[in-house]
Amino acid sequence: MNDPPDQERLAELAASLAAVRASIAAACAAAGRDPAEVTLIAVTKTFPVSDIMALAGLGVIDVGENKDQEAVPKVAVCDAAGLGLRWHFVGQLQVNKAASVARYAHMVHSVDRGRLVTALGRRASEAGRVLRCLVQVSLDPADAAGSGPAAGRGGAAPGQVPELAAQIAATEGLELAGVMAVAPLGQSARPAYARLKEIAETVRADYPLAQVISAGMSGDLREAIAEGATHVRIGTALLGGRRAFVR
Ligand SMILES: *Cc1c(COP(=O)(O)O)cnc(C)c1O
What we know:
TIM Barrel; single chain; binds pyridoxal-5'-phosphate; 8-stranded parallel beta sheet; 16% strand; 42% helix; 9 helices
């Protein structure tokens, strides 16, 4: 797990990183935005820690993982190497993993229910940390009108967002940083991200420090940046197609 990346892989990662940075710059230019407003998160799930170390050497600071049990050993190796990375937890999160995630996460992107807010707040306080939290919003049309539990791939229904935002803002150990969404499968991304932007604006009206819009993956970063994304979460375009994670 600690082997240095071979030169071929390093060159591959350098090239894909340059290409992703160029796509971000082009999307920002098209949207009249400053690329400095957009943070690239390298989503390294299923890839070995040697890839994370290589990306860190190429200047990547923000790293995303979606499973606690996979993230923990990667964090340990990178911490031991003194890399100073910021870890973003982007996957569906079980309450029983809150204590672990609260120890290493810089930002949790997937806060979508009250029980999770309570657990993360308690665990972050115990760890003496402040955890930045994003409300994950479901943009699935089935959830658009509802205020009950979301139907799709995680995320709160839009109607639940104000209450969750208020709960995070009021919880010791947590900081409300903004909103996150995944574009619904099989639909065009741009209108979904436009909806997310509206939701982000209503949250910002009450909590001016909650500026983050985490949106955009390899296939739709342009649309996300056009609709105000401040954080893009890029896996495939940086690291290649995912295979099974091997430790
Ligand atoms: C895997 C993942 C990504 C990255 O997706 P790619 O299409 O590989 O860029 C982004 N966000 C979340 C929540 C993910 O799970």
